[in-house]
Specification:
Elements: E1 45-46, H1 50-59, E2 63-69, E3 72-77, H2 82-91, E4 97-105, E5 113-121, E6 126-134, E7 139-141, H3 150-161, E8 164-166, H4 191-203
Parallel strand pairs: 3-6, 7-8
Antiparallel strand pairs: 1-2, 2-3, 4-5, 5-6
């Protein structure tokens, strides 16, 4: 007769482990934060000096602005007094070197051009900018008699922007051919069209060949 096993001798079924809990759903993503505002850039600050006070006393409202921007001093002067102001800077204030003359074109403005003289004084070791605002077609007196270096600088501004300099000894193009139409550094200038026309007329080929 087979041995009978008691219930206590029966092997116990393995205990079932509780089902693993599902990881909690991540919290809903927060709405993307609005982009931070672009930090404000540098702004012009008033430029006060003995020289500026002297010029304001002499020219009054002819000195439209005297400011410092990122460490650079500049005056904005009316076109009617710009020659006299530049002459005084050379003769009385020691700005004996005309570093550059250039312009910036703002075609949507009534006074479309900023004309800029960049001056340096060796005795003072100081650099300043003088600006005047001009309408299209306006001109200013040449300063070749004050700084001889202005000769070619004024010709370049005339060539690239079409700004005239009254009294210049030989105001003509300096970079482009005499027959070139218009002034390429104006922001509304159709440079590709002019290049195509000039090359075809003067070289007898299509531009790009």
């Amino acid at each position: 007769m087979a041995d009978e096993t008691t219930s206590k001798d029966q092997p116990k079924p393995p205990e079932s482990k509780p089902a693993a809990e599902k990881p909690a759903a991540p919290p809903a993503a927060k709405a993307a934060a609005a982009p931070s505002a672009k930090p404000a850039g540098p702004t012009p600050q008033p430029w006060e000096s003995e020289m500026v006070a002297k010029f304001k006393a002499r020219f009054g409202s002819g000195i439209r602005e005297a400011s410092t921007y990122v460490g650079q001093n500049y005056m904005v002067v009316d076109g009617s007094i710009v020659y006299e102001a530049l002459q005084l800077l050379r003769e009385d204030e020691g700005f004996d070197y005309c570093v550059d003359i250039t312009a910036v074109h703002y075609p949507k403005r009534e006074e479309q051009f900023d004309l800029v003289w960049i001056l340096y004084s060796f005795p003072r070791n100081e650099r300043i900018r003088v600006k005047t605002l001009l309408k299209d077609g306006a001109s200013v007196p040449s300063v070749v008699a004050i700084w001889s270096t202005a000769n070619w600088l004024e010709r370049e501004v005339f060539d690239m922007f079409g700004i005239g300099f009254d009294g210049h000894p030989d105001l003509k193009r300096i970079l482009l051919p005499d027959g070139w139409k218009g002034h390429p550094l104006r922001k509304d200038y159709p440079i590709l069209q002019q290049d195509t026309e000039w090359v075809k007329i003067n070289l007898g080929i299509e531009s790009g060949q």
